[in-house]
Design goal:
With 166 residues, the chain is α/β, with parallel strands linked by helices. 42% of the residues lie in helices and 15% in strands. Strand 3, helix 4 and strand 4 form a beta-alpha-beta unit. Helix 3 packs parallel to helix 4 and helix 4 runs parallel beside helix 5. The protein is globular, with a radius of gyration of 15 Å.
Length: 166
């Protein structure tokens, strides 16, 4: 089991148990970071995911679609916490396909946050094959994007840390 460390910014943690998630959230709060908790269990489609994200992140205006949600999550200026954000995600594996959509957004969001220099850490309770595959494909897309001639310096995949459920 790897120990999650909130000082490792711009990381996606997979397979964290309840105690690990609680410990990481406590550490983030003690450092002044905003902790946003998501539970994707029972969300059945992309529209429901967008609605859930809008409520959890308190989007400043109505949006339509996951691209718009990813844009807003990538720049949380209305929250305005320069110390950073920890997003704790539960229920990804049981989210009837929605979990893969959400996870596939994360490397882009982490990369954009990294370019702004505002810490953004994601901690997920699952690490099943579907989640890992969605994350790997999205990270491959980010790696390819980073190789484009017009890419921002530093554009690339997000670091992924695997944990054992406690």
């Amino acid at each position: 089991m790897s120990t999650a460390d909130i000082e490792r910014t711009f990381v996606i943690h997979l397979g964290m148990g309840d105690r690990q998630l609680a410990r990481l959230a406590e550490d983030a709060r003690s450092r002044g970071m905003t902790v946003i908790e998501l539970d994707l269990q029972g969300i059945v489609d992309r529209s429901g995911l967008v609605d859930h994200l809008a409520k959890a992140f308190t989007f400043p205006h109505n949006i339509h679609g996951l691209d718009a949600a990813a844009d807003l999550i990538s720049d949380l200026e209305w929250i305005g916490n320069i110390r950073g954000y920890l997003v704790v995600v539960r229920g990804v594996a049981g989210a009837t396909g929605v979990g893969e959509f959400f996870v596939s957004m994360l490397p882009n969001i982490v990369d954009r946050s990294r370019s702004q220099g505002v810490p953004f850490v994601v901690a997920i309770d699952a690490q099943d094959e579907r989640i890992q595959a969605a994350l790997s494909l999205a990270n491959l897309d980010m790696e390819q994007a980073g190789q484009l001639p017009w890419a921002q310096p530093g554009t690339g995949p997000a670091e992924v840390a695997f944990h054992g459920i406690d």
